[in-house]
Amino acid sequence: MPTGIPQAIAGQKYISLKTFRKSGAGVATPVWFGEDNGKLYVMTRGDMGKTKRIRNNPAVRIASCTMRGKVTGSEIPATAQILPAEAHAGAREAINRKYWAARIPFLWWRTDTYIEISFG
Fold first, then answer.
1. pTM score, whole prediction
2. How many distinct structural domains can be found in the chain?
3. Residues 31-54 pLDDT 10s
């Protein structure tokens, strides 16, 4: 089983991150992501629904998508985990390398949670 970033995702601008409710229903959200060492990194807030759903169920599905969330590729199963505070800097660096707007602090001052997505 592959452990790196799938070719269909590598280099894309947005991904659809599908997390799952306790009922099993999937909720897809378009997100920015950074890539580093075969893993993806997503920034968000700790009080967002996707963060709560990942705490309950780390199984996620990702797919390439447009800025508005229209899926443009097939879904890929993955595992997500909420990173501890000491790992935030590395995740933020991966995101900042990809998106210049992520480097503007006042736009993201409420971001307090980083998610690591791994494959395989």
1. 0.90
2. 1
3. 999 999 999 999 999 999 999 999
